[in-house]
Design a protein that fits this description.
7 strands, alpha/beta, single chain, elongated, ProC C-terminal domain-like fold, two-stranded parallel ribbon, 2 domains, Rossmann fold, 261 residues
Length: 261
């Protein structure tokens, strides 16, 4: 996600000298400097010194170890901390950073790699309106952003859009398997499924989003699509999808409790 954000910011007009990154792994650090022409350091404190915005893009279990030594530097720079570490609550971030550091959370998804992310945002009360705007600019570099009014709703965002690409990939995978079983060459079936997934996504993003209308426009009375949708209904697809999102939301909340101070 860190690489995706760096690439998106540079494509969006940010200058390489405006960005710095800390990376503990030498090979990855060298690749970042080489690929993007940015300052890449092994020292976290050096990377965040004087930065108005700091993005925490680490595994959730590493967040405390990374942040606790940086509290003084973040406070001195009056830095806004944006965490993309899944499930780590603002209360935990604030406790690790110390007093005076405004924190917020962002939940982008994997399409950030191609500039097509859907990102949920939540800001703690200490984040100023100006900082909220600045955070939007950063995350809009990789796609669309959506604010949620409570931090708990980020768990729903995680279940819907954070994990969501896997659901669509699974459906396309199963469609390709069925097409191959019905006689198509496997490679052709996979390409048809992937192209259909891509094209449907473009249609969904064009104009006003009315997913039910888009579905209805593809569905002719008595036709092939209607027959397929009836099979989905008979299998209670609606309940299955809801159960999946409930399970993902609950798991997100379980993981969040593990990082609470």
């Amino acid at each position: 996600m860190g690489r995706a954000l760096i690439g998106g910011l540079l494509r969006g007009g940010w200058r390489a000298e405006q960005l710095s990154v800390a990376e503990s792994q030498p090979a990855a650090r060298e690749a970042l400097a080489r690929d993007f022409g940015i300052s890449a350091a092994g020292d976290n404190a050096a990377a965040v010194a004087g930065a108005p915005i700091v993005v925490l893009a680490v595994k959730p279990q590493d967040a405390a170890a990374v942040l606790q030594p940086l509290g003084a530097a973040l406070a001195a720079g009056r830095s806004l901390l944006i965490s993309v570490a899944a499930g780590v609550r603002c209360a935990a971030l604030e406790s690790w950073c110390g007093a005076g550091v405004p924190v917020m959370r962002a939940m982008p998804n994997r399409p950030a790699r191609v500039g097509a992310a859907a990102t949920g945002l939540f800001a703690a009360p200490a984040v100023s309106p100006e900082q909220r705007v600045a955070a939007e600019r950063v995350l809009q570099a990789v796609g669309e952003v959506f604010w949620v009014p409570t931090e708990e709703l980020l768990d729903v965002v995680t279940a819907l859009s954070g994990s969501g690409p896997a659901y669509f990939f699974l459906l396309a995978e199963l469609m390709a398997e069925a097409g191959a079983e019905l006689g198509l060459e496997r490679a052709v079936a996979q390409r048809l499924a992937a192209a259909t997934l891509y094209g449907a996504g473009l249609l969904a993003r064009s104009g006003d989003v009315d997913l039910a209308r888009l579905r209805e426009e593809v569905t002719s009375a008595g036709g092939t699509t209607e027959a397929a949708l009836r099979a989905f209904e008979a299998a209670n697809l609606r309940a299955t999808v809801r159960a999946a999102l409930v399970a993902a939301t609950q798991r997100g909340r379980e993981l969040a409790r593990q990082t609470l101070p």
